[in-house]
Design brief:
The complex is a heterodimer of chains A (260) and B (431). Chain A is of the alpha/beta class. Chain A has two domains: 8-84, Aspartate/ornithine carbamoyltransferase (Rossmann fold); 87-238, Rossmann fold. Chain A has a five-stranded parallel beta sheet, sandwiched between helices. The relative contact order of chain A is 0.14. Chain A has helices spanning 8-19, 40-48, 64-68, 87-101, 119-130, 159-165, 177-180, 187-194, 198-202, 224-227, 234-253, and strands spanning 54-59, 75-81, 108-112, 134-138, 154-156, 168-171, 209-211. The longest helix of chain A is centred in the last third of the chain and has 20 residues, at 234-253. Helix content of chain A is 39%, strand content 13%. Helix content of chain B is 29%, strand content 23%. Chain B folds into two domains: 2-61 and 380-430, Roll (Urease, subunit C, domain 1), CATH 2.30.40; 63-369, TIM Barrel (Alpha-Beta Barrel), CATH 3.20.20. In chain B, a hairpin with a 2-residue loop joins strand 18 (414-424) and strand 19. By secondary structure, chain B is an alpha/beta fold. Classes of the chains: A alpha/beta (260), B alpha/beta (431).
């Protein structure tokens, strides 16, 4: 149930369902009775009453997925709830890192961008910390939580410092509307100060793995040459997304008699 | 709860009488005759068969409580509450007098509106004192007719719900209300610093991805109001104080200025923002439930007298308004019925405040803020008496709610202290 726009996550879940042979329905808020003023509760209860086993929800409000568990007997999978969490993205990111490095423990991960409003950052911080990775977040002071160190992570405003330190970097999409809210002055300054530019990456003494959850603003938070470079695993992330979501669906909804 | 008309004579036997006005405490009897206090003594003999005798052994007998901050939603949202249902909820909480906030639809911003509220509530079993709006339509631009509103029964002025953002307008309001000796009550929040926050800004809002409302949004505004009121020597009452910084500021200014008063709500004393982890929309209030350290400072503040009184900010909302995501839910919770059990548990049982002191914060202190008579146990006074058991433990449930709305996060919580009888305006309620 997508109450918010999505390309990757929606297609990824749809494919995962198909490949597992699940019988699925798609729901988009923009073409539904939500437009007619139907409440979240009613929408969800109507769909739930058609005997579904589980629901995947994307919503712009934090806590929306949790709220749904009150209305649905089956499993609820959070496909992103506002700026709260995006757990399946974090899982696919961790699968990608595991594939690349063989382990996650003691890996050095940099996360660059709008940490304050990012559900991807939040879920990755919780997940990666749990698996023993070290994390440094980097971004303009107006887009970082006031007290990020309490999450057991370090904070810097110096991108070069993070890039020199890390094994892999997760670059986050910078939402252009942040500019109008007075959080950042311009795209130009953001690109210069926090962007993953060719110049910056080229002068590093070692190779680092480059990740991005998409959609990218090429030329703003990441240069095209970097996004398309050999060290970028951005499309591997997308591929792993389908596999990760298949296993999540299988573990939550799969017939127990089929279990290996 | 059963509410009836009082019989001619009622004798309250052997209660622990606590009179917060004279500061006397003793075990004794109170005789109510024709709705008025007829006698208060150690023992009042009665062989009269027509006298209703009520055994108050083990119970506290004190002034009816006064809540200077409630929302009864009339006119406009009578589906949430009206003057009558609000009155019954107040009685269930031991309150015999309340002050209603003017942010209704339309708002109470003229003499005619005040007249309407007073007229519609005259027959109700409690006293309702309307607070008028500071500005027409609560728009923060033009002053209301405060003099005419006072003549019709306005007891104070507030644009509650909407902070007065313009400092010059706030200064003018304080000056104008000073002429008629009524307080201004400003919902102290800087709306820009509040930044659409739906909960306290801090580690919990970071974790939940909810927009945070920082302590500073309140404290900078409280500083502004305290500075203005002090320089103008005008009466200022600060509602629902929620942050530690605000308590410090109030303490500082109060030492120099006797015209400043403040209140705290039971929910800010009871909860902290750790409790919001489950996105319970009943905990969405304005100002937000703050951190543990703020809560502790509020408890210190009410104990030391920096904060004068307890006011519930009773804010009823429909199920639809709360049965949604945290972002979409309305701000506010009901609080009248649960008030005593909450504040008695937190302040008296857990934080060592004396029961006498707690009673002051619910009776004489709020009445002083609003210049309402505080000598309720004088012979001949209309009886406003609340009788409660200070030690009874009970679990607050939907059945204890008399408001039209049931948006309370206290449901399921064990409270200590239970209202038993309330006498108000010739009515007699037993719970």
């Amino acid at each position: 149930m997508f109450f918010e726009n999505s390309t990757r996550t929606k297609i990824s879940f749809t494919l995962a369902e198909k490949r597992l042979g699940a019988d699925s329905i798609n729901f988009s808020a923009s073409t539904s009775s939500v437009k007619k003023g139907e409440t979240l509760k009613d929408t969800v209860q109507n769909i739930a009453s058609m005997q579904i086993d589980g629901a995947i929800i994307r919503h712009s409000h934090p806590g929306a997925a949790l709220k749904l568990t009150e209305y649905i007997d089956g499993s609820v999978i959070n496909a992103g709830d506002g700026s709260h969490e995006h757990p399946t993205q974090a899982i696919l990111d961790m699968v990608t890192l595991k594939e690349k490095f063989g382990k996650i423990k003691n890996l050095k991960i940099g996360i660059i961008g709008d940490i304050l409003n990012s559900r991807v950052a939040r879920s990755n911080i919780f997940g990666l910390k749990k698996l023993g990775a070290e994390i440094v977040v980097c971004g303009p002071s107006t887009l970082l939580p006031n007290d990020a160190t309490r999450l057991g992570i370090n904070v810097t405003h110096n991108v070069d410092e993070v890039l020199n330190w890390c094994d892999a970097v997760i670059v986050l999409r910078i939402q252009l509307e942040r500019m109008h809210l007075g959080r950042i002055p311009s795209q130009r300054e953001y690109h210069r100060s926090f962007g993953l530019t060719y110049k910056r990456v080229d002068k590093l003494k070692k190779d680092i793995t480059i990740m991005h959850p998409g959609p990218m603003n090429r030329g703003i938070e990441i240069d095209s040459t970097i996004a398309d470079s050999e060290n970028a695993v951005i499309l591997d992330q997308v591929l792993n997304g389908v596999a990760s979501r298949m296993s999540i669906l299988y573990l939550l909804l799969g017939d127990k008699s089929e279990r290996l | 709860m059963i509410t009836k008309k009082q019989p001619k004579k009622i004798l309250l036997k052997s209660g622990r009488i606590i009179d917060p006005f004279s500061k006397k405490t003793f075990v004794g009897d109170i005789l109510i005759e024709n709705g008025n206090i007829a006698s208060i003594r150690k023992t009042i003999p009665s062989r009269d068969k027509d006298t209703l005798k009520i055994d108050c052994k083990g119970l506290v007998v004190t002034h009816g409580f006064c809540d200077i901050h409630v929302h009864f939603r009339e006119p406009g949202r009578e589906d949430k509450e009206n003057l009558e249902s609000g009155s019954i909820a107040a009685l269930a909480g031991g309150f015999t007098q309340v002050c209603t906030m003017p942010n209704t639809n339309p708002s109470i911003d003229s003499a005619e509106h005040i007249y309407y509220i007073c007229g519609k509530s005259s027959h109700l079993p409690i006293d309702i004192f309307p607070i008028g709006a500071v500005s027409k339509g609560q728009e923060g631009k033009e002053l209301t007719e405060m003099i005419l509103m006072k003549e019709n029964g306005a007891i104070a002025f507030s644009d509650d719900g909407i902070p007065i953002q313009n400092a010059q307008f706030m200064a003018l309001a304080l000056q104008y209300a000073k002429m008629i000796d009524l307080p201004i009550i400003n919902h102290a929040e800087d709306i820009y610093l509040r930044n659409e926050g739906v909960m306290n800004a801090g580690p919990n809002s970071d974790n939940l991805g909810l927009k945070g409302n920082p302590n500073l949004a309140e404290s900078v505004m409280i500083y502004r109001d305290l500075a203005l009121a002090s320089s103008l020597n005008a009466r200022l009452h600060i509602p629902h104080v929620s942050t530690k910084e605000s308590v410090e500021l109030i303490k500082l200014f109060k030492s120099k200025n006797k015209l400043i008063s403040s209140e705290v709500s039971p929910h800010h004393l009871y909860f902290c923002d750790d409790d919001i982890v489950g996105f319970d929309t009943n905990l969405k209030v304005g100002p937000p439930i703050r951190s543990k350290s703020d809560r502790k400072k509020l408890i210190d503040g009410i104990k030391s007298g920096t904060i004068d009184c307890i006011a519930t900010d009773h804010a009823p909302h429909t199920i639809e308004d709360k049965e949604t995501t945290f972002n979409d839910a309305e701000f506010g919770m009901i609080g009248l019925e649960s008030c005593l059990g909450v504040v008695n548990k937190i302040l008296v049982k857990e934080n060592g405040m004396s029961l006498k002191s707690l009673i002051e914060k619910l009776t004489v202190n709020p009445r002083k803020v609003m210049n309402i008579n505080t000598d309720l146990f004088a012979i001949g006074e209309k009886a406003q008496i609340t009788v409660f058991n200070p030690n009874e433990k009970w679990t607050f449930s939907g059945d204890d709610i008399y408001s039209k709305s049931s948006n309370s996060p206290f449901i399921g919580h064990e409270l200590v202290g239970k209202i038993k009888y309330v006498f108000s305006k010739n009515s007699f309620s037993s719970l």
